[in-house]
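Data availability (excerpt). The following record was deposited with the supplementary files.
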Amino acid sequence: MAVRPASADYGIWFKRTDVLIGDAMIPARWDVVEQTALCTRIVNEAGVSVSTIEHLMAALAGCGIHNALIEIDAPEVPILDGSAAEFVQAFLKAGIVSQAMPVWAVEVLKPVSVQRGEAIAELHPAAEMRIDFHIDFVDEAIGQQTKELNLANGSFVRELCDSRTFCRQADVDAMRANGLALGGSPEENAVVFDGANVKAAGGLRHADEPVRHKMLDAMGDLYLAGAPMLAHYRGHRAGHSLTNALLRELFSDPSNWRLVQCTPQQAARLPGAGVHIGEFPAVA
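Predicted structure:
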């Protein structure tokens, strides 16, 4: 996979370089998301897809990269260590160029929410991007976790980018019983919880790494709005599918939102504005 620069107002696009016949281009956009429980997959009208894009999308959003072409020769983005850290580090080392064009953002104008059972996802008006998240798991090592964060400037890089995806040992056992997740060890690219036990390379990077990763996922899924958001996202037991349903609800009514040309003051509060390699965490 290669992430290449793109012109102003290009947006984020994926190109399947292994697809030689037909349309290989897929926009990173909410309305081409195919519903899956465990990851975010986008698919074009020709049926060409790319899955597990959420960590890469979060890295792009968190680094303030609004235009890029992602070339990939497979149907899934590399999982790496299960976080967005390697993407972020590569972007910051390569350097991020400001483009001589205004930055546009999706401004949420009134509250929008969706609910499935106990899971809730909401968007509220805000002057910058904020995420609040609450999770509740039976596993003692996870339990209930809550975190609130203003994503202005480099907060994503400092606070969230190194938090890895996680799963329960019971889920790993179920997947293996069905012939899945047979290659390698799950704890190489995820944190595995089994009751009070934690299996993770190097141990936990944060005491509340699970809720931080949920916020990372939400950041990536929300970037499928097609632009940075001026909004306050609140998630309670929410996941990829529910966050996409929230975007669909938002865009279903033009009175819910508007596209705004950011003032210099607004642009300075967007995720990734002014971020630099010195803010990258010392990953375990």
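Summary of structural features: The two ends are 24 Å apart (CA to CA).
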